[in-house]
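WP5 quarterly update. Target: CUB domain-containing protein. Source organism: Ditylenchus destructor. Length: 979 aa.
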Amino acid sequence: MMPRVQPTLLPEALDGGELPPVLSRPRFHPERDPGDASWQSQFGGQEFGSESSLPDNIQCIYTFVADRGQRVKLEFTGFQLAGTADNCDMEYIDVYSELETPSDDLLSASLGGRYCGTVSPHVRISLHSVLVLVFHSRVGDRRTEKLFLEGHYQFINENRFIPGTRMPESAGKCAFLVEPKKKRHGSILSPTYPGTYPSNFHCIYLLKGNTGDRIRLFFRDFDIYFGGEHCPYDSVTIYDGHSTSDPILRKVCGLQQRLEMFSFGSNLLIEFNTTDPVKNDPRGFIIDYEFSDRFVDVKKLIRGQRGISHLRGSECDIRVLSNRESVHYIESPNYPGMYPPNTTCTYILDGLQGDQNLEKVILKFETIELVSHVEAESNSSLIKSDHHLASSSRAEFDECSHGSFVGVAVKPTSIGAVLSNAEESLYDATLCDRLPSNSPKFGPYTSQGPRIVIVFGSVDTAAADSSQADSSTALATKSRENGREVHGFRARVEFKTDFGVPGESMGDSNKCMFRFKNKLGSFNSPRYPANYPLDTNCTYFITGEPGDQILLYFVQFALFEENSKEECRDYLEIYDVLRDSKGVETYQLQAKHCWTVFPGPTISTFGAYEMKVVFSSDFFGTANGFNAFYEIRKAFREDVPSKEGSDPRHCGHLIESRDDVTTGYFTSPGFPVKYNKDQICDWEIHARPNHQVLLKLIGMEVEGEMTDIKTSCMNAVIRVHLDYGNRTNDLAICGTNPTVIAPIVSANNSIRISFLTAPEKVNGLNGFNFTWTEVRRVERDSECAGEENYLCSYTRLCIASGLRCNGDDNCGENDDTDEAHCNIAERVTDMRTIMVAATFSGFIFLFIFGFFCFLFKTKLERKRNKKESRKKRRKGLAGKSTGIGARASEHQHRVPSHQRQPYRSQKPSVQRHLQPRSDSQAAQGSPAVARSPPQDRRQIATNGDMRNQPNQAFFARPPNGLIASSTDGSPKQERIFFG
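C-alpha cells (predicted):
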C-alpha cells in the first residue's frame, strides 16, 4: 500500500531573513490500516542539470508522518549537492528526526545534522512518528554539477525499540523496566538503531530478574562515538545492581564486537548517555540479554574463602589474592557435582607484590576428572550436542584438542597471551580426561613471577532448550555407567615468599636461604634488579667438592648509602667454610662490604671448597642490591707458589729475605705491559725472625677508582693481607694513584699480597710495582747499633746499612733519612766531577785554539813573505840603469807576473818572447793588429819600430798600469803585450 502525498505550498522561514520560495512541501503518511504496520516508497528522484537550474534561492521541506505506534525510517540512495562536507553554505539538506508532531517549530527543534556534497546521511529513524527534511539551495545557474537527491522511506513498528515496560515520567522519557515475566531473553536497541542516535539524550534500562537468576549481556552490535579511553562523551555504562550507586561492571564506547557480561546478582542497570559529538553518524547498539538460573553460582564457587573474589562482569572468573603466605583451594563450578556445559572460567592466582612483599605461586592439583570427547559423543542419545571446546578457535592442545580441559599458564608470556585472548592461547600445561594418581601433570607448578593463570573450559553438551539439571544428570549418569563419576577438578594454591633468587631453596618458604651446587652460576639480592626489601636477611651457600676452590666476582653492587661512611647497616659478608678432620664446620669471615666498597674478585681460602655469603638490610633505606657470579674450580697446587711459574694458573711466588738480601721488588704479570683477564696471583714475603716487612707501592695502573669515601675495584683488585688469619683487615687497592696507600709495615715477619682480575673482561692497564724491605722496630738506639745496621731517624726502623744510598726510600712513610745524607755527598761528588770535567774541557779547548792560532800565524807569515818578495822585485825593476839590451835580454828570460786588468776581462796568461821582425812583417801586422781598433794599431806600429832599434829595450805594460821608461832620458815609449 502506497502512502498518500499531501503537498502544501506554505512558505517556511528557517534561516531568517527573506523567505525563499518554496518549491514544494509534500507530506507523507500511511493510510489508516491497522493490519499493515510497514510502508515503503520513494521520494525525490528529480535530477536538475545546467539547462534546468533551480531558482537562485529555493527551499523545499519534506515532512514524513507515521501512524501511531510507528517510526519513520529514511535511507538515501542518491545524493549529490553543491559544496563539500566542511562547507555547506550554498546548498544543503537538514534532518530533523526528534520531532514529536508535524507542527513543531523547526527553529527551536534539535537539528539532527546538515549535509551537502556527495556524503549522504546514514540511515535515519525518527525518535517519534515525525521526520522532516529541509532542502535549501542558493546556487541557481552557477551550478557546475548535476543536483541529485533520492531515497527510500519506510514506516516501521516501534515495538522493537521498547524492550519492556515504560517507567514513570520522573525517570525520564527513555526509561524501561525489563523483567522475565513474558520472556527470559530479548534485545535492547538504542532509541533509533540502526539510525544515527539523538544527541544530548539519556536512556536507562533496568533489568530485574527473579531470585537466583543471573543476567547475561551480549553486545551483538555496538557503535558509540569514541571520545577517549574513559568515554568522556557518549557512553554506555553497565551497573551491577538496580541503581547507579552499585558497582560499575564496565563503561563502554567506540566499536565493540562480541562483548559479553554477566551480573553477579539478579539485577542489572544499563545507562546510555549522549552529548553533541563531532558529526560521524554512529548507529548505536543492539544488546542481547538473558535471564537464567543455570549460570555458575559464584557464591558456591568462592565458598566464602578469604582472598577469593569474583571478577565482576564475568560468569565465573575469580581472583585468588594471597593473604601473605596463605593457602587456598579452587574448584570447577558445581564441584564435586557435574560442571555446567559450555562454560569457560578463568582463575587468576596473584601473590603479593610491593615494596616489601613479593610472593610466588605453587599450584598442585588434587583431582582431575573431566569429560573426554569420546564420552561426550557417547551421550548423544541423552542430550543434543555439537561437541567442541568452548573456545573452538583455540590452538590444538595435543590430546586435549576436543573436550573439557584445564589450561595452566606459568610463564609471563603465556599469562599475557591468555589474559588478552583466552580463545587463541597456548598454555604451558594442558590437563584433560582422568589423570592417574602418579601423573606429573598434577604438579606442583611454580610461577616465574607473582602470578599463575588457569583456564577451565567445558564441552557444549546441552541443547538450546535443555536445562542445566537435565544435561548434568545425563552426563553424570553416563559417567557412573562407565565406572567412575566425572566431576571437574580441585587444586591447592599456596603462596610463598619469592626472593627472586635463582637457587635451591633451603628451610621454610619465608626464609631467604639458598644453596648452589652447579659449577657456574649467579645469585643476587632479594628481588634484584628491583630494590631489596627492608629488614631482610639472606644466606647463600656455594658448595663444591673437596679439591675445589670458589671464585666469586660481582657485576653490580649498590647498597643504601648511609649519612656517614662509618655507618654500615646494610652489608654483605663473605665467609670461607672450613672443615676439620671430624667434619666440623667453621665459618671464617673473609670480607664485609658496605655501601662504600664495590667488591673486587675474590677466591676462597686454600683448602675451603664452600663459601657462605650473608646479606642483611635494616628497617631504613633500600637500593638495587647486588648481582654476583661464581665459579667452582679445581684448587691450586699450592697456597702460594713456591717459585714463579710453578703453577700456570697461579702467578706470584714466595719471597724470603736473607742476610745479603733484605730488599727487593715484585710486579704484576708482564709489568709494564697490560695484564690479562682471569689472573690470580699471590706473593708472600717472609722476613727473618724478630723483623717486619716494609711494603711500598711505587707505581700503579689498575682499573677502578678510589676516593676518600668510596672504593670501586669491580674488575681488578690488589689486596694486601695485613693478617691472613683475619682477612677483615685486608686493604683493597686499585686506580692509578699510588699515593692513595702509604707504606705499610707488617705486624709480624710476613705479609701477603694478592692480585685478582675478573674472568669475563678487563680493560687491561699496565699493572703495579711494589718494593719490600726487611725492617725491625726498635725503641732504643742501642738496639740498632753496629756497622751493619742503620737507624731511620723518624720511623725508628732499623734497616741494613747496605741499604743506605741505594736510591730507594727504605725507612718508611715520610722518612728519607737513609737517602738524605747521600744526596749531600752526591752533590759534593757531582761538583768535583763537574770541575774535573770543566778543567779537562778547558785543556782541550786551549789545545784546539793554539793549533788554529799556529796555522793562522803560519799563513800570515807566508803572505808577508810573498808581499815582501813582490816589493823587492818591483824595486829591483825600477832602480836598475844598465843597458837596455841587457835588461831586455834579462826580461826575455823572466816570466812577468800578470794580474787582472780592471778594465778588461780576464784572459788566459800566455808567455811570449819578443823577437825582431822584418819591415814587411811589421807592416802587415799580426792578426791581433788586424782585429784591434785604429788607435791601437798606431800604438802597435810604434812599438814595432822600436823593436827594430837594437839599442833600446821595450817592456810590456805591467798589469797595474805602471809605464816603463828608458834610463837615458829619451822620451817614454809604451809597450803593449797581448797574451
